[in-house]
Amino acid sequence: xxxxxxxxxxxxxxxxxxxxxxxxxxxxxxxxxxxxxxxxxxxxxxxxxxxxxxxxxxxxxxxxxxxxxxxxxxxxxxxxxxxxxxxxxxxxxxxxxxxxxxxxxxxxxxxxxxxxxxxxxxxxxxxxxxxxxxxxxxxxxxxxxxxxxxxxxxxxxxxxxxxxxxxxxxxxxxxxxxxxxxxxxxxxxxxxxxxxxxxxxxxxxxxxxxxxxxxxxxxxxxxxxxxxxxxxxxxxxxxxxxxxxxxxxxxxxxxxxxxxxxxxxxxxxxxxxxxxxxxxxxxxxxxxxxxxxxxxxxxxxxxxxxxxxxxxxxxxxxxxxxxxxxxxxxxxxxxxxxxxxxxxxxxxxxxxxxxxxxxxxxxxxxxxxxxxxxxxxxxxxxxxxxxxxxxxxxxxxxx
Length: 399
Prior knowledge:
Number of strands: 13
Distance between the termini: 24 Å
Strand content: 15-25%
Strand order of the largest sheet: 3-2-1-4-5-6-7
Order of helices and strands: HEHEHEHEHEHEHEEHEHEHEHEHEHHH
Helix content: 25-40%
Shape: globular
C-alpha cells in the first residue's frame, strides 16, 4: 500500500487539494484547458478541489459568462482568482500570494504548476507535487533556484512529467528527483455518445482530413499547406488558431481550393468536428513554438489534440518524433511519417484513402488505448494513487 493510499485510509479516501496554477482562465491556451480538466479529474475521484489562478483580466477570452461551460467541465470545484499586479516582478508576487492563500486553506496537498507558488507552499510546510511540461531552465534563473530549493525540501513529494524524454532530462540535471518522477502524458475526456458530427460536404466520397489546434510555428501548418495541393482528392479542414494566424495562413493557402479554415471554436465544441473527419493530422515539427512565439517545446510536448483524436476513434497520421512515439505505434493505432517529408504524408493519406477498413481499425485501437490510459480521470487517479514516498503520510495530518 502506497503512502497516499495510507493517507486515504486515514482520511476516508478524501483529500483537500489546492491546485496552484499560472493559467489565464478563460483563454484559448492549452495550459488553461489542462488545469481545468485536471481539477475536474481530481474532483471526480472524490477529492475537494480549489483552483488558485491569477486574475489576468486583460488576457481573458472576452464574452465568457460561464468558464465551466466554456471548457466543457463540470462545476465540481472552486476557482479563486488572486491579484495579478501591474508591476515588475508580479509573477513572483503572485506566487507569494498564492502560496500564502494555499496555507490558509489548510489543504492536504498543493498541486503546483507555478514555481514561485510551489516554493512558498513548501516553505510554509505544505506537501507539494510539481507538474512540469518543459525544462525549468526555460523559466529563468530565479525560478530554477526556487525549484532546486523545492526538490531538496522534505515537503516535495513528486514531480509529474508529461513525457519520458522530459523525465530523463530532470533525472540527468536534477539528481534529487530520481525515484520521485511519474510520467503521465496529457489526456482528454471521453466523447459522449450524444455528440453529433458537423455536416461537411462529401462530394464523390472525398477523404475528409482534419487538423485541430493552434497555428504556431512548428505545430504543422507548414506541412498542411504543402500537403493539400498534393491531395486534390481530399478536403482539408483547419480548426483553431488566433485571428492573426488564421489570416496569415489563409493568405498562404489562397490558391488551394481544398483547404477550409473553420476558425476558433470553444474547446467544448471541438468533438463534433473531429467526428466528422475521416483522418486527423498531428504534424508537429522538431521545434514547436509556444504562445507569444518564443521558446521551443518540440522535444518535450505531449499534445492535447493527440488524445482528443484518440478519444474520437479517428485514424491519426502523426510526425515520427520520440515524444509522439510514446503514444502512437506505427500501423497499430496510427501512422508515423517523417515530420518534414510532405511526400510521405501524401503517401500515408493515399494509403488511408485506399484502405478505409485499416483506417477504422487504427482508430478503434487508438480509442481503446485512450479509454484504458489517457482520460483525465485516470490521470488524476494515477497522480494520487501511484506514489511510494514513505514520508508523506507517517500520520494523518492534524488540523
